[in-house]
Structure formats: structure tokens, C-alpha cells
From TrEMBL:
This is Cytochrome P450. Belongs to the cytochrome P450 family. Its cofactor is heme. The keyword Iron applies.
Length: 479
């Protein structure tokens, strides 16, 4: 169905809307609904006029596989024109030349160097930290208290990455800088997915100034921690120590300081915000679906009783795992994946020109009724491998696991050689956080609050996520 060609392509033009200004306004407003509507109207490949180039929205899983897996070397992450023929990847303004933003041989070399740090057995060693930090974050909550779960989950995941990446506490200066110094809704991070982003970032706007000042503060802390590690003889298990100890298999050389900085900052910034969003949306969905919430608590009570979860409990937390998977289907952690074709190519019978902007948007794919019956329905039973007789009566039970489904119809962590290297870390952290908090608490929606999405690199609630906390058991029964 899908064919790549580096020769001139004789194929039909890609359908899509007209009007660059209208597309720009829609992209800056509610892009997820806009993209979903374009798919419904025009099909699996849509041409969207955007800036000086067209954006090609691709939502067919087989076509996505062609881009991310089969012909991934035909595409580059460097999608933003930086002038004079130079291209840069989105987010390089904060992540530098890390796994998230780099390309080609450099990316493959870095991936091989860093991959062992995310081996399943090593990540399992962080399980106790996942549970302890999740347990500690709830220590100040009160029965009946209204909480902003977006803020609470950000604190939780920031605590996790602070401990596991830098071996520092949540009240450290590093955690404070990440929490306060990098503005997410203004400056370069706001513009980075739009045309002319590099030029907008150069303007002397207050948000830009605050962003670059915060980035400088964060860099100073990271380099200071690197110096402290080198001056110590201790071999740490945190990821920063492992980055410093890593050696190239061919040359035996360590990474340069700027390389360590780029990878550490990427793990820190991307690692805590994406998981925080996944947990926030999970609690929103649990709060609005009492029957799903009740089953979650029954499973937690049966598996854990009064103790904290361990990594060994994960295979038995089947429903908890299903809740997280389904939450990430409805609310994927990232807004999308951008690629630039290095040559003209053919996709689904359409010509996609060299140096255009190709976008893969998980939200659109995850809500396509062709792959997901009743796509707007929150149904964790989609992910049950061994359903109960009661589950079997629901046509959606086990649907996500059925043979023959396109593999890339579910891409919360991307796909192919560039799939998120921390996907196991994020999944384990998410399931253990849900289980830990669920021992003691359940949450209810706040009457009158309207939940809106904000798609700015990640997908998070626009005005926070206020929920009312209800204690499930007395405080003195907690560990």
C-alpha cells in the first residue's frame, strides 16, 4: 500500500483545506480537534497549508510504519528552518543535540551508548523509589480537600526523576529550578511547533528572556552536579552517574560534557512532564467513571493490602495497567511527531515533496473508529488479555490485543528505532503511582469545572485538573 521513492514521483496530489491563515489560527487554538476533523473529511493523508510549507498529516498506521520504521532513514527530525539552508529539530532550544532531537549516525551511536541504562532490570531497581515518592506526595492531603491533580502529579514525577536521574530530593535547588524557572506556556516552548519558531524565539520578549534565564540556571546546576560526581569516588546508580561512566564501545571515550548535559536535561524535562500528564488524565477518567474506579480499588486491595507495591506486583496489577494504557490512548503524552523527508516520496498513492513537514499525531490515530471501536469511550477492558466471564460480554474486551491489528495504531511512545527510550521507565512509574495512591485515596470531579485540553508539545489540562480527594481508609492504617 505504501511505497517510498527517491525518484520523481508520479502520484495524485494530497487532498486538504485551503487558507494558510485559517490553518495557523486553528493550529494555535485547538489543534487536536482540527486535525481529527481533517482526517474525517479528507482521509489518512491530508495536506495542510502552514507557513511557507505544507504540513502533511498522516494517520494510517501502515503509512506511519513506513515513516517511523521501514524508511525511517528517508526522514529527519530537523524540521524547522533555521535560515541559510540549516535545519534544526523542534525542542533543540532546550534539549540540545540529545536522543530526542539528534539524527543519523550520531543518534544511533548515542542510542547504543544509553540503551543499557534503560534495561528492564535496571529500571526495576528504581521500583522502590517510585512507590516511596508516590506515597510521600500524598502525606499532606486531607479528606474532602480539593486538589489540582495536574500540579500534584507534576510534583510526584518531578520527585521521581530528581531521585533517579540526579539522586537529589524534591526540595533541592535543581528541582526548584525545573519547577519554577522554565516557562512552558510562553517563549520558545510555546512557539516551537509553529512556523517561524526560530525567529520568534529571537525577539526580546519577556517570556523569551525568562526562558533563556531559566535554561541558564538549569545548565549551571547540571554542570555543578557533574563536577561533584567526578570529584567523588562513589559509583552512583542515578542516571547522571551512568551517563558520566558510559564509554563508547569502539573508542573507549566518555561523552563530552555538553552531550551529558543534553541527555540529562532531556530525561529530566521530558521524563517528568509526560508521565505527570498521563497520571493526571488517568485520575480524571477514574473520577468520571465510578465503575472503573471501583474495580481499580478492588484490585489494589487484593494485590497489596496495606503495603506499598513492588516491581513483583506488576504482573498482578492487570486492571491498573489497563487503566493507564487506555488513558494514554485517549490522552497521549505527546502532541505529535514531526519529520522532514529528505527526498520526494510516495505515500498511499500521494506525492509528498522533499523538505515538507510530515506530522504523525497519536491523538488522531488513537481516536480513529477504524482501529478503535467507540473511540471516545474510556474502556480499560480493551487491554485485558485474560478477561473474566463478565468482561467477555463486552465487545471491546481484549480488542486492543487482538491478532491482526496494526501495531502502530497505538503509539503513545512513538515507534521504530526512535521509540521513546524511557517507555518502560514511564510505564512502570505510572502503574506503581496509581497503585500506591489508590491504596488510600479516590477522587471525584469538581462540579462545574469544564475540562479542556492544551496541546503544546505535550497534551495537558488547560486550567489544571481540580478533583476532590476522598480517603479510603484511616490515616493510621497507612504504612
Amino acid at each position: 500500500m505504501t511505497q517510498v521513492s527517491t525518484a520523481p514521483v508520479a502520484a495524485t496530489a494530497v487532498p486538504g483545506p485551503t487558507g494558510r491563515l485559517r490553518a495557523m489560527l486553528s493550529m494555535s487554538g485547538n489543534p487536536m480537534d482540527y486535525f481529527t476533523g481533517l482526517r474525517d473529511q479528507y482521509g489518512a493523508v491530508v495536506s495542510v497549508p502552514l507557513g511557507l510549507r505544507n504540513l502533511f498529516l498522516v494517520s494510517d498506521p501502515e503509512a506511519v510504519s513506513e515513516i517511523l520504521v521501514n524508511s525511517h532513514r528517508t526522514f529527519t527530525k530537523a524540521t524547522m528552518s533555521a535560515g541559510r539552508g540549516k535545519w534544526e529539530a523542534p525542542l533543540s532550544v532546550i534539549f540540545g543535540n540529545s536522543l530526542t532531537t539528534s539524527d543519523g549516525d550520531y543518534h544511533r551511536k548515542q542510542r547504543r551508548l544509553i540503551q543499557p541504562m534503560f534495561h528492564h532490570e535496571r529500571i526495576a531497581g528504581y521500583g522502590r523509589a517510585f512507590a516511596e515518592i508516590s506515597d510521600g506526595i500524598q502525606s499532606g492531603w486531607k479528606d474532602g480537600q480539593r486538589l489540582d491533580m495536574a500540579a500534584e502529579m507534576t510534583e510526584l514525577t518531578l520527585g521521581v526523576v530528581s531521585r533517579t536521574i540526579f539522586d537529589v530530593s524534591l526540595d533541592s535547588d535543581m528541582a526548584h529550578t525545573v519547577r519554577t524557572a522554565i516557562p512552558r506556556d510562553e517563549g520558545p516552548l510555546r512557539w516551537d511547533s509553529l512556523p517561524f519558531a526560530r525567529y520568534l524565539a529571537m525577539l526580546p520578549l519577556p517570556g523569551n528572556k525568562r526562558f533563556f534565564a531559566g535554561r541558564d540556571q538549569l545548565d549551571a546546576i547540571v554542570y555543578r552536579l557533574m563536577d561533584e560526581r567526578r570529584q567523588s569516588d562513589a559509583k552512583g546508580a542515578d542516571l547522571l552517574s551512568l551517563l558520566l561512566e558510559a564509554r563508547d564501545a569502539d573508542t573507549g571515550k566518555p561523552m563530552e560534557d555538553h552531550q551529558v548535559r543534553d541527555e540529562a536535561v532531556t530525561m529530566l524535562m521530558a521524563g517528568h512532564e509526560t508521565t505527570a500528564n498521563a497520571l493526571t488524565w488517568s485520575y480524571h477518567l477514574l473520577a468520571t467513571h465510578p465503575e472503573v474506579r471501583k474495580r481499580l480499588h478492588q484490585e489494589i486491595d487484593e494485590v497489596l493490602g496495606d503495603r506499598l507495591p513492588t516491581v513483583e506486583d506488576l504482573p498482578r496489577l492487570v486492571w491498573t495497567d489497563a487503566v493507564l494504557n487506555e488513558a494514554m490512548r485517549l490522552y497521549p503524552p505527546i502532541m505529535g511527531m514531526a519529520r522532514r523527508p529528505l527526498e520526494d516520496f510516495e505515500l498511499c498513492g500521494h506525492r509528498i515533496p522533499k523538505d515538507s513537514f510530515v506530522a504523525v499525531v497519536p491523538w488522531v490515530i488513537h481516536r480513529d473508529p477504524q482501529w478503535w471501536p467507540q473511540p471516545e469511550r474510556f474502556a480499560p477492558q480493551r487491554w485485558l488479555k485474560d478477561p473474566t466471564p463478565a468482561d467477555a460480554a463486552d465487545e471491546l474486551t481484549g480488542h486492543a490485543l487482538r491478532p491482526g491489528r496494526p501495531r502502530l495504531s497505538y503509539i503513545p511512545f512513538g515507534g521504530g528505532p526512535r521509540q521513546c527510550i524511557g517507555n518502560t521507565f514511564a510505564w512502570m512509574e505510572g502503574v506503581m503511582a496509581l497503585a500506591t495512591v489508590g491504596r488510600d485515596w479516590e477522587f471525584e470531579p469538581v462540579p462545574g469545572h469544564t475540562v479542556e485540553t492544551l496541546a503544546r508539545i505535550t497534551i495537558r489540562p488547560k486550567n489544571g485538573m481540580p478533583l476532590t480527594a476522598r480517603r479510603r481508609r484511616p490515616a493510621d492504617a497507612r504504612d
